[in-house]
């Protein structure tokens, strides 16, 4: 009992420690995934997105903290690998109950709800901003007048637009994901639409192949999960969510525990990141296997993952029984 | 130094070198596969380009490599046989490893500030040369088809200057040489042939003798006509100079009417004298040169048979080419791919767009230039431009012509930076600026319209990289040391998994640390609004990173405690 309480406290402490950095990282990834540059996003917008992603952030922090707690646990003090599942279940149940009754949104689709974007999010004033074969320079001048210069690289044509306040002519649509520039005067007319992705500048988050590959896998997996979720109705959704979440822990805990080498617990930490990297790829593969279990076919991936986790648990238990207590 | 310290240093250095070589090899293969063989020809360019990019990539990944080496050393390598001794303690390896970390940090600093930008610049130059060589060869074939053999040979000379050998090009060169009627200057010795032949006195009486004959006959203008040319050829000859002066006095002091032909010669001599005075060394006004050019070109048109006029015209053209240019010079290089679509601000408030800019043998040419003044809305168009002196001169027509004073500003561009930097504006120049250029040129580039972050923000990011290496290396080394066991090693499968996972985990940690540094830089904006506008971002970031560095140093050194030497964790 003491061990269970201590592990619960450890998981909660780690969650409190890591929820902010994980929240930052996830918010940055979501914004970058929607081609919204971070260079001038504004702290208010950042916190808005973080708030929209509260449940995913807490879940990710919970997942990470559970894995870290198992990775750092002293194997001598663990009487049975099956008991190791109990503390995370307690914490998970508490979190689940809290969010169930809070009514907060859980899908990343609404992550950009409440986001207020302007031209300054995408265009730096006084410089030529590259976008889709054009270069756009917004400049606010005196007495409320502004100048927008649009240079078309294909035709080598420069179009100067002498305007009023820039915000009237340059608008960002966060839902549809494009920046529109419109100008209509007797002397000149212009209407252009630029997708947000045209303004993305290279950063490690956007250009790192490793990060891009991983986030693409996670995004694809989330789409698969959501696709199946929306095809269900009523209690099936709750059952689906519950069993899928349970399967993650049933698989994660024995995998990380297996990585936790008593003599080399640093490897346990490295192993945790390895498992977290491999998990989305594994689940993607599971979502592709043929559905079985009849009416409950939507539970196939969850049951397959849980089954793998239970098998690993059994193998670990058998191995630990064979080996001496000090190995 | 005892054996353990030597072994520790050896392990760290060898591990680092192995990691660097593996990275270099991997990146060389990666970049080699990515290169488009249609653009990068011939083969010698590809080797140089792949090597430059691979080396730049390897140096860019040095920070992660150092952290990886430290992680691997303090977990695995320092449990191997040279370290399985009773006397082995943490402090045996703490000092050597910390010293190596400082050395690595110096290498990384030099790489980030100098080596990587220089290598990327070199790669950019090689790419430009490869494109130029490809265009030159294509152009040579076109000219050969048009039977312009001298043009073909000239272009192939340029091609061979860029790339030493190519069998197809050499065969084409031989064919063009066989077909061309005249002799062709040897490759590499393509000095411009003089515009006119210098007149010689080898046939018939010399200019002096003819002049003296005319003087004796009393035809003073005719005498001047010949004596002036004799004086030009023999400047130190006192006899010619004396006879010339006597003829001059007689000619301009003569009373009475002169014949029509004499009149014509008088005008010719007067005009020529005026032009020569303008061309004089003391007269350094460029307007004078243009006037001299106008006179000599007019005289050369009227009297094409006069070689000395042609010679003087060539002289004044040569002087004018120091301050002006001929459109034909640009048209002859129009075939080059160059750098397309430039747009930049200049010091006079114009936005300039350039359809194409070409760099060739130290000169920079601009084609199809448009200017727009952001305040007045004034526009200017010019077909040709060349960087001369400290400005870009524009013109629409062939020939030398001094613009009207009110027009001069419109046809002169004074950029904020040297045009060589303008030619790189479209191609990721921010990664190719060394620290020196960041402090000398970046302000001009920003004023030109380039989206470049401030030099202190850039330096803050570099400080973040250095502290990421320092902090993560010490922290991971300390954690790895604390949690290892010298009594047993993990199973081979786990060891393999560990060695394979560690580089990616290190990469992730590095990304997270530098991301945190970027958050600090972002927070600095709010700090300047709320606290003080004078807080330098470099100082702010430096202080925070230094505090983290102190914590990691303390954690690393705390591993020196006796109970942490080789014991099982927790």
Any descriptors?
heterodimer; A: 327 residues; alpha+beta; 2 domains; four-stranded antiparallel beta sheet; three-stranded antiparallel beta sheet; 7 strands; elongated; B: 570 residues; six-stranded antiparallel beta sheet
Beta-strand portion of chain B reads 5-15%
Total of DSSP H or I helical runs spanning 4+ residues of chain B: 20
Number of strands of chain A: 7
Of all protein chain pairs, which has the greatest interface, and how many residues does each chain bring to it? A-B, 47 and 48 residues
**Largest β sheet strand count, sense and barrel closure of chain A:** 4 strands, antiparallel
N-to-C series of helices and strands of chain B: HHHHHHHHHHHHHEEEEEHEHHHHHH
Q: What percent of the residues of chain B sit in helical stretches (DSSP H or I)?
A: 55-70%
| Shape, per Cα inertia axes of chain B | elongated
The biggest beta sheet of chain B is recorded as: 6 strands, antiparallel
Describe the fold and architecture:
The complex is a heterodimer of chains A (327) and B (570). Chain A folds into two domains: 2-115 and 208-322, no CATH class; 119-173 and 176-199, no CATH class. Chain A is 55% helix and 13% strand. Chain A is built from ten helices and seven strands. Chain A has helices at 2-33, 43-52, 54-72, 86-102, 119-122, 204-207, 209-231, 235-259, 265-288, 300-322, and strands spanning 129-131, 134-140, 146-152, 157-163, 170-173, 178-184, 189-195. In chain A, helix 1 (2-33) crosses helix 4 (86-102), helix 3 packs across helix 9 (265-288) and helix 9 (265-288) packs antiparallel against helix 10. Chain A is elongated and about 85 Å long. The mean pLDDT of chain A is 83. Chain B is elongated, with a radius of gyration of 36 Å. Among the domains of chain B are: 207-323, no CATH class; 328-448, no CATH class; 464-564, no CATH class. Chain B contains 20 helices and six strands. Chain B has a six-stranded antiparallel β-sheet with strand order 1-2-3-4-5-6. In chain B, a hairpin with a 5-residue loop joins strand 3 (363-373) and strand 4. Chain B has helices spanning 3-34, 43-60, 62-75, 90-145, 149-162, 167-179, 207-217, 220-233, 238-253, 260-279, 286-302, 307-320, 327-331, 405-408, 419-422, 435-440, 442-448, 455-482, 492-530, 537-558; strands at residues 339-345, 350-360, 363-373, 379-388, 391-395, 412-413. In chain B, helix 1 packs across helix 2 (43-60), helix 4 packs antiparallel against helix 5 (149-162) and helix 4 (90-145) crosses helix 18 (455-482).
């Amino acid at each position: 009992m003491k061990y269970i309480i201590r592990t619960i406290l450890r998981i909660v402490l780690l969650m409190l420690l890591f929820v902010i950095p994980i929240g930052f990282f996830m918010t940055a990834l979501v914004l970058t995934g929607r081609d919204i540059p971070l260079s001038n996003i504004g702290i208010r917008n950042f916190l808005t997105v973080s708030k929209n992603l509260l449940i995913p952030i807490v879940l990710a922090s919970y997942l990470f903290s559970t894995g870290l707690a198992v990775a750092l646990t002293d194997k001598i003090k663990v009487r049975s690998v099956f008991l190791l599942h109990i503390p995370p279940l307690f914490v998970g149940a508490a979190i689940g109950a809290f969010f169930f009754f809070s009514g907060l949104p859980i899908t990343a689709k609404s992550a950009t709800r409440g986001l207020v974007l302007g031209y300054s999010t995408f265009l730096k004033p006084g410089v030529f901003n590259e976008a889709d074969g054009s270069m756009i320079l917004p400049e606010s001048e005196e007495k409320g007048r502004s100048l927008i210069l649009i240079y078309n690289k294909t035709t080598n044509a420069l179009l100067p637009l002498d305007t009023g306040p820039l915000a009237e002519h340059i608008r960002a649509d966060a839902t549809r994901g494009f920046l529109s520039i419109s100008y209509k005067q007797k002397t000149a007319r212009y209407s252009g639409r630029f997708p947000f992705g045209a303004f993305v500048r290279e950063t490690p988050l956007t250009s790192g192949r490793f990060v891009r590959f991983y986030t693409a896998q996670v995004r694809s997996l989330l789409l698969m999960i959501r696709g199946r979720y929306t095809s269900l109705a009523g209690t099936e959704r709750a059952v689906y969510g519950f069993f899928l979440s349970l399967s993650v822990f049933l698989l994660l805990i024995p995998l990380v525990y297996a990585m936790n080498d008593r003599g080399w617990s640093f490897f346990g930490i490295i192993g945790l990141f390895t498992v977290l990297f491999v998990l989305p790829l594994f689940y993607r593969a599971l979502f592709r296997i043929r559905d079985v279990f009849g009416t409950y076919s939507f539970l196939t991936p969850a049951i397959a993952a849980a089954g793998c986790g239970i098998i690993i648990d059994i193998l670990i238990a058998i191995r630990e029984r064979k080996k001496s207590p000090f190995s | 130094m005892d054996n353990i310290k030597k072994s520790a240093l050896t392990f760290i250095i060898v591990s680092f070198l192995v990691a660097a070589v593996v990275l270099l090899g991997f990146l060389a293969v990666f970049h080699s596969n990515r290169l488009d063989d249609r653009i990068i020809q011939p083969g010698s360019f590809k080797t140089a380009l792949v090597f430059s990019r691979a080396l730049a990539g390897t140096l860019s990944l040095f920070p992660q490599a150092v952290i990886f080496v430290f992680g691997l050393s303090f977990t695995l390598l320092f449990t191997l046989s040279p370290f399985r001794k009773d006397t082995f303690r943490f402090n045996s390896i703490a000092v050597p490893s910390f010293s190596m970390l400082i050395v690595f940090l110096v290498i990384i600093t030099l790489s980030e500030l100098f080596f990587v930008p220089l290598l990327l610049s070199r790669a950019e130059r090689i790419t430009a040369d490869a494109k130029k060589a490809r265009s030159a060869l294509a152009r040579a074939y076109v000219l050969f088809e048009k039977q312009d053999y001298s043009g073909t040979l000239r272009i192939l000379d340029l091609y061979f200057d860029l790339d030493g050998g190519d069998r197809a090009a050499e065969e084409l060169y031989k064919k063009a040489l066989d077909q061309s009627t005249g002799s062709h200057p040897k490759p590499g010795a393509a000095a411009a042939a003089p515009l006119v032949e210098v007149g010689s006195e080898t046939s018939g009486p010399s200019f002096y003798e003819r002049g003296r004959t005319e003087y004796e006959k009393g035809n003073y203008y005719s005498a001047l006509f010949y004596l002036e040319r004799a004086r030009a050829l023999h400047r130190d000859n006192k006899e010619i100079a004396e006879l010339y002066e006597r003829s001059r006095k007689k000619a301009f002091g003569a009373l009475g009417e002169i014949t029509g032909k004499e009149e014509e010669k008088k005008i010719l001599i007067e005009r020529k004298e005026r032009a020569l005075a303008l061309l004089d060394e003391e007269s350094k006004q460029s307007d004078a040169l243009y006037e001299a050019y106008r006179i000599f070109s007019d005289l050369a048109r009227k009297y094409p048979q006069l070689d000395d006029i042609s010679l003087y015209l060539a002289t004044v053209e040569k002087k004018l080419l120091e301050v002006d240019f001929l459109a034909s010079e640009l048209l002859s290089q129009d075939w080059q791919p160059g750098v397309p679509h430039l747009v930049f601000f200049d010091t006079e408030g114009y936005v300039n767009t350039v359809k194409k800019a070409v760099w060739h043998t130290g000169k920079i040419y601009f084609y199809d230039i448009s200017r727009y003044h952001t305040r007045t809305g004034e526009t200017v168009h010019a077909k040709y431009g060349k960087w001369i002196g400290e400005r870009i001169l524009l013109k629409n027509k062939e020939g030398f012509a001094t613009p009207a004073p009110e027009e001069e500003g419109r046809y002169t561009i004074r950029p904020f930076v040297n045009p060589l930097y303008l030619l790189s504006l479209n191609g990721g120049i921010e990664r190719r600026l060394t620290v020196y250029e960041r402090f000398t040129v970046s302000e001009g580039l920003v004023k030109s319209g380039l989206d470049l972050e401030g030099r202190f923000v850039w330096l803050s990011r570099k400080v973040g990289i250095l502290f990421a290496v320092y902090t993560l290396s010490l922290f991971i080394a300390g954690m790895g040391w604390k949690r290892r066991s010298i009594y047993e090693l993990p199973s081979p499968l786990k060891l393999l998994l560990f060695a394979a996972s560690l580089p990616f985990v290190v990469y992730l940690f590095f990304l997270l640390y530098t991301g945190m540094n970027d958050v600090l830089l972002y927070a600095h904006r709010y700090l300047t609004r709320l606290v003080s506008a004078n807080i330098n971002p470099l100082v702010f970031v430096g202080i925070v990173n230094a505090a983290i560095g102190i914590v990691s140093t303390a954690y690393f050194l705390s591993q020196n405690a006796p109970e942490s030497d080789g014991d099982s964790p927790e």
